[in-house]
Write a structure and sequence with these properties.
Elements lengths: L2 E3 L12 H5 L3 E4 L8 H9 L7 E8 L4 E5 L3 H25 L1 H4 L3 E8 L31 E8 L6 E5 L3 H8 L5 H6 L3 H10 L9 H15 L1 H6 L3 E5 L4 E5 L5 E5 L3 E8 L11 H9 L7
Parallel strand pairs: 1-2
Antiparallel strand pairs: 2-9, 3-4, 3-5, 5-11, 6-9, 6-11, 7-8, 7-10
Helix pairs in contact: 5-10
The structure holds succinic acid and fe (iii) ion.
């Protein structure tokens, strides 16, 4: 995989970067290609000192225009909502200009502010971000669509340090069977059963076989010490003021240190990929030999 640097934005002529992203590369902008006011950055960084007011991450939900994960005064809450809304709208506009084909069919997911120093977090294995993993959201199955995330390091001086490894095709080839692809996909009762429970109001998430596998794979990779220790590793330290984006379900990634990152997530329709056969769901279906999501 590669970290591809884009030095100037907007460019003289547009490049279709979809093939680069779909094959598990990172697009890296040394200078953030959209504007986000210094006062907003100062405000976000100052939230750290508000004692226990922050729960892990602060999330902004574009669809409902709400912020979660922070308890402060009503004035602080209002200010935070305005700052996160502004960040989210700005990064959405930028990403739409970078990737118009995706924007035509994407779904907006959450934006987040990540206020805590990553090197000293004490989390259960499944939540640790310093172990290599592909992303999958327990509460938001994608049904074969892809997870695109745009990150910005707003720390005034510290880099955000990532390690990645070979992208999904190589990973699936090596580990999907061992992780239980056949067993998980052969379970045909769990999705319809979950639909029934969901329809009568129980907090159950109906998941396609693909989504069940991806959720399991996330944890499988984190718990596989041979993989964690011996896989090829590509390291990149993202400097303060830089922005980068990648499909976090195609590219296994981990963060080792760094503080104060902003991030916006997009769910990219598999129908808008430059090459449909690149989608993780299609790679897994080729291995399994049958569909893993409804047509
Ligand atoms: C992750 O998605 O695993 C974390 C990446 C980051 O916060 O830099
Ligand atoms: Fe992740």
């Amino acid at each position: 995989m590669e970290f591809l640097t884009i030095d100037t934005w907007p460019p003289a002529s547009l490049t279709d970067y979809r093939p680069q992203l779909e094959t598990g590369n990172v697009l890296y902008f040394p200078t953030t290609p959209f504007s986000f006011p210094a006062e907003s950055q100062d405000f976000l960084r100052s939230l750290d000192f508000a004692g226990k007011a922050i729960h892990k991450n602060i999330a902004y939900r574009p669809a409902s225009d709400r912020v979660t994960g922070f308890e402060g005064t009503p004035e602080q809450q209002q200010h935070l909502l305005a700052v996160m809304r502004d960040y989210s709208r700005t990064v959405i506009a930028f990403t739409a200009s970078l990737l118009p084909e995706y924007a035509a069919a994407w779904k907006l997911d959450y934006a987040s502010f990540r206020p805590l120093e990553e090197s000293s977090r004490d989390l259960p294995v499944n939540k640790r971000n310093d172990l290599l993993h592909t992303d999958a959201f327990p509460s938001r199955p994608t049904h074969g669509d892809l997870i695109l995330r745009v990150f910005t390091n707003i720390h005034p001086s510290k880099t955000r340090n990532w390690i990645t490894t070979d992208p999904f095709p190589a990973l699936a080839e090596k580990y999907a069977r061992a992780a239980g692809l056949d067993r998980i996909a052969a379970n045909t009762w769990s999705e319809p059963a979950a639909r029934v429970l969901h329809s009568i109001g129980l907090p159950v998430v109906p998941r396609s076989p693909y989504d069940r596998f991806m959720l399991h794979f996330h944890e499988y990779l984190k718990r596989n010490t041979d993989f964690q220790q011996n896989c090829p590793k590509y390291r990149f330290d993202f400097p303060p003021g830089s922005t980068w984006l990648t499909f976090t379900d195609v590219l296994p990634h981990s963060v080792h240190s760094g503080q104060h990152a902003l991030e916006q997530t997009f769910i990219i329709s598999k129908s808008s990929l430059s090459r449909a056969e690149n989608a993780p769901v299609r790679i897994l279906e080729r291995l399994y030999g049958k569909p893993l999501v409804a047509a």
